Amino acid sequence: ESQANRWGDYSGMSLDPDGSTFWGIAEFAGTPDPHFGTAVAAITGAPSLTVTPDSLYFGNVLVGRPSPTQTLTFTSTGDNPDTIGTAITTGANAADFVLSNDQCSGVTLASGASCTIDVAFAPTMAGYENGFVVLGDENGMVSISVSGQGIYEAVLEFSPSPVQFPDTVQQAESAAIAVTLSNTGNEAADISRISAGQPFLQSNNCPASLAVGGSCHLEVAFYPTTAAVFTDYIVVSYNSGHQYSLTLNGTGITAPAAVPCPAAVDFGSQLENSASAPQTVILTNTGSAQLDISTITASGDFAVASNSCPATVDPRASCTITLTFTPTTLGSESGTLTISDNAAGSPQTVPLSGSGVSSVAAAEARRSVALLQAEGAWPAAGTSGVEAKRAKAQQAIRVARRPLEFEPNVGQFRAGLRFVAQAPGYALAVQRGGMLLELPARRAAKDNSGNAGGKTKTGPVRVRMRLAGANRGTHARGIDRLPGKANYFLGRDPSRWRTNVATYARVKVASVYRKIDLVYYGNQRELEYDFVVRRGGDPDRIRLAF
Prior knowledge:
Blueprint: E1 11-15, E2 22-30, E3 35-43, E4 49-52, E5 55-62, E6 70-76, E7 82-83, E8 88-90, E9 97-100, E10 108-109, E11 114-121, E12 127-137, E13 140-151, E14 156-159, E15 163-164, E16 168-169, E17 177-183, E18 189-196, E19 200-204, E20 209-210, E21 215-222, E22 229-238, E23 242-253, E24 258-261, E25 265-271, E26 279-285, E27 291-298, E28 302-307, E29 312-313, E30 318-325, E31 331-341, E32 348-357, H1 359-374, H2 386-401, E33 406-408, E34 417-423, E35 426-431, E36 434-439, E37 443-444, E38 456-457, E39 461-467, E40 475-488, E41 498-513, E42 516-523, E43 526-533, E44 544-545
Parallel strand pairs: 5-13, 15-23, 16-23, 25-32
Antiparallel strand pairs: 1-2, 2-3, 4-6, 6-11, 7-10, 8-12, 9-11, 12-13, 14-17, 17-21, 18-20, 18-22, 19-21, 22-23, 24-26, 26-30, 27-29, 27-31, 28-30, 31-32, 33-34, 34-35, 35-36, 36-39, 37-38, 39-44, 40-41, 41-42, 42-43
C-alpha cells in the first residue's frame, strides 16, 4: 500500500488550560492485523524546578507602552545537575507578554542553583489580558500565570518636581520659577482648571486640551504674607474628575527690601554749567524689617540736592531723593544714584542720564519763545494774568512730578479693569491681555454750515493695546507700594464704598509670554512699560496690536 497517510503518522501535543499539564495524542497499528487505534495521554511529570513568585500581575498598563519588568526566579531542587529547556509564553494573549534577560533557557543548573527571567507586559488592546510563562527540564515543566489590564489614559508630569523657593521676604514676591507640564500618556488631557494654593502664584500657557506627547509651561512665584514655612500645591483638574498636583515649598522671612522708583532718570537737555530742575526718586522699603541706610550718593555731573530719607526706614514706608544735573561738558552724560543699605542686593542703583547743550542752543530756544510772543501765542512778562498763569504752570509741574499711582480694582471701577492709574489729561487701565488708554471728552468746533449750538462735546477717546498671542491666566500684582491711599464714597449705599485702597508705583504682569514679564510704571507722570525677558525667553514672541 502507499506509504503516505498511514496510521501512526499523526501525533501532537498541547498545553492544558491549567498551565501544568500537557496532552499527547498518537495513532498506532497493532495486532491482530488489521488493528488501529488512537492513544491520548496526560503528561504531568514533576519537574526538578521551583519558581517564585508563582504568578505575575502587571496592573494597569498603557496600551502600546511596555510595563516595568518583573522577575521570575527558578531553582533546581533535584539531587543531580538539571538541564533546562527553552522558556516560552503561551495562552490567549501570549504575544503581549515579553521575556527578556533570560538566564535560564539552555543552561544546566547545579542542585540548589537558581536562574532568572524578566517578564514585561506590552498590551496591544484595552482590557484584561492573560497568558502563561512555561519552562521545563527533563523531568517535567512549570507554568506561571501572567496577567494585566491594558488602558488608555492621560498621564501628567511636572518638571521640576517638587519646587523649592529660596527664602523670600514677607510681603514681597519671589522670582518666578519655570515649570513644564507634560502629557506622557496615550490619551489627551482636557484641562478644566489649574490653581495654586496660597501664598503661591501661577500663570500658564496651557491649552484647554493637552495632546499626547504635548507640554505647556507655568510660571510659579511665592508671595509670603508672614514669616513662616509654607507648603501647598498646584492642582491640575482634567478629564472629568482627575487631578494631578505639584508640591510647592517656601519660607517667608523678615528682612528689609529697598526698591527705588523710577528705575532710571533722564534729565534731557540742559544748558552747560547750569543746574537742571530737580527730579525725584522715591525709595520704598517693601520688606518686613527696618531698612538701614548708610549712604546716598550720585556720580558724574549729577548731584543729590536733598533727601527725606532717615537713617532707618520702616517697613512699607517711603522717602524721596531729589537729584539735579549740572553738565560741565557738551553731549550725552551718564551717572548713577547709589544707595547703600542693609537690604539684599545692596547697593541699590538707579542709572542717570542727560545731555549738556551750549548757550547757542539756549539762544535758539529763547528766539523761539520771542517769536511765539510776537505772534501772541506766548504771554510776555508783565502782561495781564501772567503771574496767575505762571503759578498755575508751577502747580502743574508739581503735579506732574508726582509718581504715577496704580490702584487695584476692588469694585471702584467697572469690571474687567485690573489696575487703574489716573493722570492729568488721561487715564489708563491694565486689563487681561493688554492695556486701555482713555483721553477725556473734548469740544469740537461747529460745522461749516454754522449750525446753532456752537461747539459740540465729543465722547472720550480710547486706545487699546493688546498683547497678541499672550498667555492665558496671567497674574497682575502691584509692586513698590506707595504711602498714599484712595477712598471712594459711591452714592449713599455704604456697601458700594471703597476705602483705604492701596496705591502702587508699578504693576507687574508675570509671564505674558513664556519667561517674559511686563512691568507698567510712570516716569514724570507719563506711562512707560518694560518687557523683562528672562533667560530662555524669546523676545520675538512679543507682538503688540492696537
